Amino acid sequence: MGKTTLKSLAQALNMSVSTVSKALNDSHEISEITKKKVQEFAKKHNYQPNVLAQFLKTGKTQTIGVVLPKMTSPFESQILEGMQQTASALHYRIVIMNSMESEDLEKAALQSMLDKAVDGILFCPIHESSNLELAKQIQKTTPLVIFDRTNYPIDTHKIGVLNSAGTYQACKHLLDIGRNRMAIFCGTRQGITATRLLGYFEAHSDFGLPVAPEYTVYCNVKSISELQADMEQHVKKLLQLPNPPNAIIGVADTITTHLLGVLAKLEVKVPDTLAVIGFANTDLALSLNPSLSTIRQPTKDIGEISVTKLVEVIQKTNRSQIEWEDIKLPTSIQLRRSTIG
Amino acid sequence: MGKTTLKSLAQALNMSVSTVSKALNDSHEISEITKKKVQEFAKKHNYQPNVLAQFLKTGKTQTIGVVLPKMTSPFESQILEGMQQTASALHYRIVIMNSMESEDLEKAALQSMLDKAVDGILFCPIHESSNLELAKQIQKTTPLVIFDRTNYPIDTHKIGVLNSAGTYQACKHLLDIGRNRMAIFCGTRQGITATRLLGYFEAHSDFGLPVAPEYTVYCNVKSISELQADMEQHVKKLLQLPNPPNAIIGVADTITTHLLGVLAKLEVKVPDTLAVIGFANTDLALSLNPSLSTIRQPTKDIGEISVTKLVEVIQKTNRSQIEWEDIKLPTSIQLRRSTIG
DNA sequence: TTGTATGCGTTATCAT
DNA sequence: ATGATAACGCATACAA
């Protein structure tokens, strides 16, 4: 009593392997009666097709590889959950490779996908040109879709959010509540940060607000502790300006949420002295000090659409004729006590 | 110029397929000179072995399946990250299936692993007996290791934490700072909750504190909003008692962190009126209102050890002789303003 | 409607 | 030291 295979079934049923195979695949060239017979017998003997053999035969693994810079912050893990769920629904499985913000690891991750053990790749590059050549190379043979970091110069589907609009909304809200001196805390000097800054500048221009260069702050996001120390210095410096800001916008989850901790430590009153709003997908906004006004990204949708689009490409026969889409999903804004007191 | 395979290499080199295969696998029966020749040629032509064929041949997929109830909270995502990293180091990949706290989905997830597309399974059951029979069934053919929920009645390695000690420590700390009336907020009535409650009772017994039954509170954790509403009611009720508690212990990440939001909403002073401490792996403890005293679980270690132990089993030839370990890792306690003001 | 034969790309066994 | 050949389990073109 070894494992049940097509062969063993065929033997037991006194039929040929191909008949059994076709019957189990519900082929039209098999009579209903034998189909039923075979299928029942197979079920009874708990037959499980060896997917590896199927894979080898069909060249498809029903597997999607995801390469992304981190996976523990709410933004990423929510996206991953969305991907996992829709992939499951489409009968795909997800394999995650964490590039951990390192270009070398990212390269290794991408290369490990290359061995044809995945049908397609969902890629969130570390920065706007990291491993670009490799990605282009891969794309020649394996469908690849970009998510989140959509300003990555490559021809394929891209799924991200309307970053500049998110910041614009935040600025508008701050202005509405009388905060006209807004600092903005950024991460690295590229990609998404740049787009979010754009919304900030646009809003200032539209609303006739002057832009103070010292209000644009770049933080060291290498590690949480470095980020905290760095933000502490920046806040102190800003508050000593002759014309200090009365609001801060955070351009990323980590920055915005940890900024509250820094301000609490410095005993800066929020929102009295500084209103705070920013991009954040934490579900702890209500438990923060004070409850945090957020610009939320539709993480579940990002995950879902990324998978859907990728599978679309995978299943397309003539891949050359696809019109690549650059999808930008809208953000939403939630107002809480960190801005409205 | 199709894909480079053993066959194509052999043809080009005018050698046999088996020679090439052996040369690439560094076999001792191949001369150094041909080895070098083959390996260089293969590299030059960017040869990638088809892992699917390898899988079919060897019966190993170098893939580990993870089934767990959720993946977006810090505790779970940190564990997943730990698993992913050590798996990578051991040349395994991780496939995640999210049971989403549903027994049916859990069953489907486990069954989808059954088709032999994974070499082993890491399983965190929804509750202490969910899909127990199926798990036992699977275990006959596929190595399976339990993590987090270690009070699952099955014979295999289990990797979790010393839950009762965690709560015990928290109680001790509360007593040290003069809080002798501690309520405890639990989730469902089973498994881990029970163990953590044990530490609470033990501490009370050891320290000669009376246990007030109304201090043990079970919360509805179906969704965040239900949890918040439910906790709000419980807090109100507790504070109206003739002898209200002066501290609350949360037994899980979500409960503890969201409790702060509820208390903020009710304008209950923390820690003045109620000190708060609890199990939580959020890295936002410092940004919470107020900064949160936590009992932290060694998530990275859980992930790392789980994978290591599972791979150990996978690679063991005579699986029958293994002594199953029930590993309990210590928690650590971080004191912040929610208890020490 | 059913069966036969072949191949997917590897590894492993056995000759040479 | 190298090569021929047979599996692994399945799907499919083709034959009957």
From TrEMBL, chains A, B:
- Iron keyword on record: no
Task: List the SUPFAM superfamilies hit by this protein, alphabetically.
Answer: lambda repressor-like DNA-binding domains (SSF47413), Periplasmic binding protein-like I (SSF53822)
A Pfam family it matches: LacI
Which GO molecular-function terms appear in the entry?
Answer: DNA binding
Under InterPro entries, the record lists: HTH_LacI, LacI/GalR-like_sensor, Lambda_DNA-bd_dom_sf, Peripla_BP_I
Domain HTH lacI-type as annotated: residue spans: 4-58
UniProtKB keywords: DNA-binding, Transcription, Transcription regulation
Q: What is this protein called?
A: LacI family DNA-binding transcriptional regulator
User: What species is this protein from?
Assistant: Sphingobacterium suaedae
